Amino acid sequence: MDRPKKTEFTFPTHINDYPTGPQYAAGYLPETNAGWRSVRPVVDHDACVYCLRCYLLCPDGTVVKDNGKITFDMDYCKGCGVCAYECPKDAIKMVKEQV
Amino acid sequence: MTNLIDIPKVNAKNMTEKEFFYGHKACAGCGGSIAVRLALKVLGERTYTALPAGCMSAVGFIYPQMAFNTNAIITTFPGSASMASGIAVGAKALGQKDVKTVVFAGDGGTADIGFQALSGMIDRNDDVLYICYDNEAYMNTGIQKSGLTPYGTKTTTTPAGENLPGTITHKKNLFEIIAAHDIAYAATASIGYPQDFLNKVNKAKHIKGATFIHVYASCPTGWGTPTETSVEIAKDAVDCGLIFLAEFEDGEYKLNRNPKQFAPVKDYLKKQGRFKHMQDTDIEVVIANRDRKWSRMRKHWL
């Protein structure tokens, strides 16, 4: 997967652990956005024609091309539903998140 | 003239799988983050990104979270273009090749506060791509009217009531103001037409000198629309003629999309909470302004 993963935040203990400048390195993600979500996207792979419209339009870039199949990075999906709404084949359904 | 046919095309199938704007804290369904994400995917890893105060800097740099995977810096609100100029000439002085400097500024940071710096940047013709994602108000600070807020919009500084229909001024004609600088390349786009936007960013990437793209990006929070309709709303705005897709290159305007018939403006307006209060007379003002603009564009740009 060509995208940054969640990194555990460890409190800096030595001066060398602090970032140089006002930010950490690019792609340093100690938090996920999964908690924002109330619905989650589910793909029907039989109906999906792999047009990649969801991949193009996901505001968070969480749609992953996985060997000719569409999957989602659930750590960072916010459940906005753009993928399901824009899907020309209605292959993506937004399903209520179970708590 | 840079011919788009000579430039390798970028589309969803062949674009890089790397994400350069990831894990950001933008509202669900944010149109601006679609624009930033797609633009960075076209521009690639060797990009210097400068962002003034605005949504994309607020959601990208929440310490210690760092959503940008390119070099990125928050600039002063009025000085984003001048800082980008400095980055571009700095990169040139260091002899760096294949780098691009890009600015992502909102409509307020472009048309109002950052305008003098932008004007100076275009005048010096620094190698910077300036992308204005236009969500038609200062959304980051809580929906205040900007120079690009259209007629009839309800914002916190232009509330709608019995006496006024919200904003009483029309949208500033930013594209033509920028084109009047005789810029190398300027374009308008909408996230509702993503391939068109990708092509324009790709074209600007391959042009040396100052370039400008004005991309229409929806904002579910500020516009009062459901999160899933973000892209559809941005497409509707183009289809009903309130937003036009055009390019300015080599001193010539080019209208990319000239529909024979517009989609109904009322349908577009009534989908959004910010226009809910509008009376038919207000909508007629919007339509009259649109028709005046289009008749002028069709006369001179075709």
Features:
heterodimer; A: 99 residues; alpha+beta; Alpha-Beta Plaits; two-stranded antiparallel ribbon; two-stranded antiparallel sheet; B: 302 residues; alpha/beta; Rossmann fold; 11 helices; globular
Fraction of residues in H or I helices of chain B:
25-40%
Morphology of chain B:
globular
Q: Strand count, sense and closure of the main sheet of chain A?
A: 2 strands, antiparallel
Number of strands of chain A: 4
Radius of gyration of chain B: 18 Å
* Percent in strands of chain A: 15-25%
* Radius of gyration of chain A, CA atoms, in whole angstroms: 17 Å
User: How are the strands of the biggest sheet of chain B laid out side by side?
Assistant: 2-1-3-4-6-5-7-8
Instruction: Specify the number of helices of chain A.
Output: 2
User: What's the mean pLDDT score of chain B?
Assistant: 94
Q: Mind describing the biggest β-sheet of chain B?
A: 8 strands, mixed
CATH class annotation of the domain at 37-96 in chain A: Alpha Beta
Number of strands of chain B: 8
**Name of the CATH class of chain B:** Alpha Beta
- Output the number of helix runs of chain B: 11
Unreliable stretches of chain B, pLDDT < 50, 5 or more residues? none
CATH superfamily of chain B: Thiamin diphosphate (ThDP)-binding fold, Pyr/PP domains
CATH architecture of chain B: 3-Layer(aba) Sandwich
CATH architecture of the domain at 37-96 in chain A: 2-Layer Sandwich
Could you explain the architecture of this structure?
The complex is a heterodimer of chains A (99) and B (302). Helix content of chain A is 10%, strand content 18%. Chain A has helices spanning 53-57, 82-86, and strands at residues 39-43, 63-66, 69-72, 92-96. Chain A is elongated and about 55 Å long. In chain A, the strands form two sheets. Chain A has a two-stranded antiparallel sheet with strand order 1-4. Chain A has a two-stranded antiparallel sheet with strand order 2-3. Chain A has a domain at 37-96: Alpha-Beta Plaits (2-Layer Sandwich), CATH 3.30.70.20. Chain A has 99 residues and is an alpha+beta fold. The model of chain B has no long low-confidence stretch (mean pLDDT 94). With 302 residues, chain B is an alpha/beta fold. Chain B has an eight-stranded mixed sheet with strand order 2-1-3-4-6-5-7-8, with helices on both faces. The relative contact order of chain B is 0.13. The longest helix of chain B is centred in the last third of the chain and has 22 residues, at 280-301. In chain B, strand 1, helix 2 and strand 2 (71-74) form a beta-alpha-beta unit. Chain B contains eleven helices and eight strands. Chain B has one domain (4-301): Rossmann fold (3-Layer(aba) Sandwich), CATH 3.40.50. In chain B, helix 1 (31-43) packs across helix 7 (194-205) and helix 3 packs parallel to helix 5. Chain B has helices at 31-43, 55-60, 80-93, 107-112, 115-124, 174-179, 194-205, 220-223, 230-239, 265-270, 280-301, and strands spanning 47-51, 71-74, 100-106, 128-134, 185-190, 211-216, 246-249, 252-255.
